[in-house]
Amino acid sequence: MARRSTPRPAGRDAAVRGAAGRLRPLPLSRVYRLLEPGPVVLVTTAHRGHANVMAMSWHTMIEFEPPLVACVVSRANFSRRALVATGECVIAIPDRRLAGKVVAAGNVSGRDCEKFEVIGLTPVPSTRVGAPRIVECWANLECRVRDTALAARYDLFVLEVVAAWVRPGRGSPTTIHHRGRGVFVPDGKAFRLPSAKP
After folding, report:
1. What is the pLDDT of residues 10-40, one digit of tens each?
2. Residues β-bridged to residue 186
3. Model confidence over 36-87: pLDDT tens digits?
């Protein structure tokens, strides 16, 4: 006995075709704007008596404990030399109020100036690594390079957080996310779903 197929609701095929017709191709060069994984951070390094800071938005957590962070530090970044030489850095997390300084950190090079002085950020010694923490940032993560297996091909470094610091009384400050070509968006309001674990 042949099975009878369930008839589709009238007009459904037309609705699907109409919805698909509203989709438009996106240039592949713009895909990264859709998938930026986290807030823009500042990365500090120190090598041969020279402290430096760079802006970075290409990073993601890959392990809970010990905390491991995968991040991209390009060969074009002056900080990469110090990161490779020392195997250490600090990831400092700024809030929205520091957006102008974050942009400045991304627009000038430590090859040409003392970036902390030019940008107006305050370095202070870390406890576990040689790179400095940044006073103005609400959180600082002292890191050591854990894995460089993909650094040569993809500029990808895996960092282990060995000490973490937050400024008390700040709650969860609003961080900023880079959408490409000078466009930034702030974090939105947090919310909890009934099914989420506390």
Report:
1. 566 666 566 667 888 878 887 776 776 679 9
2. 176
3. 667 999 999 999 999 999 999 999 999 999 999 999 999 988 899 999 999 9
- Rounded-to-integer distance, Cα 106 and Cα 84, Å: 20
Dihedral in degrees, nearest 10, Cα atoms 180, 147, 134, 119: -40
Q: Is residue 19, in this structure, part of any structural domain at all?
A: no
What is the reported pLDDT for 82? 96
Could you give the CA distance from residue 184 to residue 96 in angstroms, rounded to a whole number?
10
* DSSP-assigned states of every residue in 89-155: EEEEE--GGGHHHHHHHHHS-TTTS-HHHHHT--EE--SSSSSPEETTSSEEEEEEEEE-TTHHHH-
Type of residue found at 196? A
56 SS3 class: strand
Which structural domain, as residue segments, surrounds residue 60?
A: 35-181
Query: Residue 4: which pLDDT band, with cuts at 50, 70 and 90?
Result: low
For residue 48, the domain's CATH number is: 2.30.110.10
This prediction has a pTM of 0.83
Length of the chain: 198
